[in-house]
Amino acid sequence: MATEKKATKAAPKAAKKTTAKKATVKKAAAKAAVELNATNVGYRAGDVYQTLAAENKALTPAEIAKAAKISAEEVYLGIGWLFKEGKIKDEDNKVTLA
Q1: pTM (two decimals)
Q2: Where are the domains of the chain?
Q3: 92 φ, ψ to 5°?
Q4: What pLDDT, in 10s, does the model give residues 35-77?
């Protein structure tokens, strides 16, 4: 007995319209870790010193950070180093070269 296979064509399915969903990406607050070693702290002290020398006036730590393009934490590291060496002084809650 011979069996015949019937060729059946599947009816074309209607194209579904899909809307692309935008994936929501949550941006985590990227907080850069400051590497604590003598080399890095020395570089930040140099950044702070050069900024104060270029401005030739007393600056707040925030102003130093903005001018030197470094973080506030890095400014404080540099200030600590420079205070210890006696290269800077406090002047009305601002930092200036000694």
Answers
A1: 0.65
A2: 38-97
A3: 55, 55
A4: 788 888 999 999 999 999 999 999 999 999 999 999 999 999 9
